[in-house]
C-alpha cells in the first residue's frame, strides 16, 4: 500500500507495529499534523457533511483537504465516515435526529423500545436505510481515497451504549433492576451483531488491503476499532461486570488491536476490571467537562501504564514534552497539531533526542 499524501508510510507502519508490541524504535509513536508549506489551505468537510447524500462531494473535498496537510510522524491521512455516534442503534431500527441550531454538529438515535418483550430478539435488516447509507459512504470514500487516504472505522457505540440508544437510559437503568433477564437477552443480541457489522464495515473501507484506523487515529494493519461503554458511569461494578464487561471482552478478543475510550471520573470504579483484560491494548482517558486538564491526571496515567496498557495523549506540543519526562515512552502515543511543518519536525526530533 502506498499513499500519495504519506510518502513515509512504511516508516510509520514500522513504528505502529512497535507501538502495538509495546516497543520503541527511536521515539514514541507521535501522530502530528500541520499545514503543508507553500499551499493554500482547504478546509475539511464538516463532521456530518454526508448527511444530505452527496458522498462523492464529501470524499473529493476531503481529498483536496488532505493534500494540504503535512501528515508527520505516525499520522496517516483518513476520513472518519459517519452520520453521528449512535449508528449501531440506527442499524437496529432507530431513526437518527440531527442537532439543529446547535454549536455542535452531531446526531443521536431516537429510542424506540418501550417494552423489551415486544422487540426481542433484536434483528438486523440488511436493507436498513442507515446501514445502506453507511456502506455507500464508506465505499465512496474508499474509492476516491485509493492511493491517497484511508477510510476510517466507525465510532461504533456498541454493547450497553447500543441499548441506551434505543431505550431511554433512565428506563434501561430500571430494567437492570426490574427485568434483568430481558437486558441479558438484549445484550446477547448486540454481542451477536458486533462481528457481523464489523466484517461488513471492514470490507467497505478496504481494511483487508489497507488496514484500519479510527476516530482515535491509531493505525493497525489488521482489525482495529475504538471501544467504549459510556453507559458504565450509570451502574455499579457488580452490574457492569455481570452485564457489560463480557461484551467488551468479546470485542477486545475479536479485534487485532484496540483502545478503550474512558470518559469521566464517575466511571473509574470500573478501572481495575477494565485494566485486567489482556486483550485490551490502550486507554484514552478523557477527564470530561469541568474536570482538571489531562496533564493533571499523571498519577492515573501512571496507574494505567503500570497495568501494561498504552496511552493516547492528546495535548499541545509543549505539553507533550512534560508527559514524555514522566511516562513510559513505549506505552504512549502522542497526538497533536502544529502550526507549521518546521514545528512538527522539531517536536519529532526532540522526542528522538530525549528518548
Which helices and strands occur, and which strands form pairs?
Elements: H1 9-20, E1 29-35, H2 55-66, E2 69-73, E3 78-79, H3 87-91, E4 95-98, E5 107-110, H4 116-119, H5 129-144, E6 150-151, H6 159-166, H7 169-178, H8 180-204, H9 207-210, E7 212-213, E8 219-220, E9 224-228, H10 237-254, E10 257-263, H11 271-275, E11 282-286, H12 298-306, E12 310-314, H13 317-326, E13 332-337, H14 341-353
Parallel strand pairs: 1-13, 3-6, 9-10, 10-11, 11-12, 12-13
Antiparallel strand pairs: 1-2, 4-5, 7-8
Summarize the structure.
The chain is α/β, with parallel strands linked by helices. It is built from 14 helices and 13 strands. The chain has one domain: TIM Barrel (Alpha-Beta Barrel), CATH 3.20.20.
Task: Report what the structure shows.
With about 350 residues, the protein is an alpha/beta fold. It has helices at about 10-20, 55-65, 85-90, 115-120, 130-145, 160-165, 170-180, 180-205, 205-210, 235-255, 270-275, 300-305, 315-325, 340-355; strands at about 30-35, 70-75, 80, 95-100, 105-110, 150, 210-215, 220, 225-230, 255-265, 280-285, 310-315, 330-335. The strands form 4 sheets. The protein has a 7-stranded mixed beta sheet with strand order 2-1-13-12-11-10-9. Strands 3-6 form a two-stranded parallel sheet. A hairpin with an 8-residue loop joins strand 4 and strand 5. Helix 13 (about 315-325) packs parallel to helix 14 (about 340-355). The longest helix has 25 residues, at about 180-205. The chain is globular and about 60 Å long.
Amino acid at each position: 500500500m502506498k499513499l500519495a499524501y504519506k510518502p513515509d508510510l512504511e516508516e510509520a507502519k514500522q513504528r505502529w507495529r512497535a507501538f502495538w508490541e509495546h516497543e520503541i524504535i527511536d521515539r514514541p509513536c507521535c501522530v502530528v499534523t500541520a499545514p503543508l508549506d507553500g499551499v493554500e489551505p482547504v478546509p475539511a468537510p464538516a463532521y456530518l457533511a454526508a448527511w444530505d447524500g452527496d458522498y462523492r462531494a464529501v470524499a473529493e473535498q476531503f481529498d483536496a483537504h488532505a493534500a494540504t496537510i503535512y501528515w508527520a510522524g505516525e499520522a496517516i491521512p483518513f476520513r472518519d465516515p459517519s452520520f453521528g455516534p449512535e449508528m449501531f442503534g440506527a442499524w437496529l431500527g432507530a431513526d437518527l435526529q440531527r442537532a439543529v441550531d446547535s454549536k455542535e454538529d452531531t446526531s443521536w438515535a431516537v429510542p424506540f423500545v418501550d417494552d423489551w418483550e415486544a422487540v426481542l430478539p433484536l434483528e438486523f435488516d440488511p436493507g436498513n436505510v442507515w446501514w445502506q447509507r453507511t456502506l455507500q459512504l464508506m465505499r465512496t470514500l474508499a474509492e476516491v481515497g485509493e492511493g491517497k487516504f484511508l477510510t476510517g472505522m466507525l465510532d461504533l457505540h456498541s454493547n450497553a451504549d447500543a441499548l441506551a440508544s434505543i431505550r431511554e437510559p433512565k428506563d434501561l437503568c430500571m430494567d437492570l433492576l426490574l427485568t434483568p433477564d430481558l437486558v441479558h437477552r438484549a445484550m446477547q443480541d448486540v454481542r451477536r451483531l458486533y462481528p457481523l457489522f464489523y466484517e461488513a464495515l471492514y470490507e467497505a473501507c478496504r481494511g483487508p488491503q489497507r488496514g484500519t484506523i479510527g476516530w482515535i487515529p491509531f493505525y493497525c494493519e489488521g482489525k482495529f476499532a475504538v471501544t467504549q461503554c459510556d453507559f458504565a458511569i450509570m451502574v455499579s461494578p457488580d452490574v457492569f461486570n455481570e452485564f457489560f464487561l463480557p461484551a467488551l471482552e468479546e470485542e477486545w478478543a475479536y479485534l487485532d488491536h484496540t483502545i478503550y475510550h474512558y470518559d469521566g471520573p464517575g466511571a473509574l470504579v470500573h478501572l481495575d476490571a477494565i485494566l485486567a483484560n489482556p486483550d485490551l491494548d490502550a486507554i484514552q482517558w478523557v477527564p470530561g467537562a469541568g474536570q482538571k486538564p489531562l496533564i493533571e491526571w499523571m498519577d492515573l496515567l501512571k496507574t494505567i501504564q503500570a497495568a501494561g496498557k498504552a496511552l493516547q495523549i492528546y495535548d499541545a506540543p509543549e505539553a507533550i514534552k512534560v508527559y514524555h519526562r514522566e511516562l513510559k515512552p513505549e506505552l504512549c502515543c502522542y497526538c497533536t497539531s502544529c502550526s507549521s511543518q518546521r514545528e512538527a519536525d522539531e517536536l519529532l526530533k526532540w522526542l528522538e533526542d530525549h528518548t
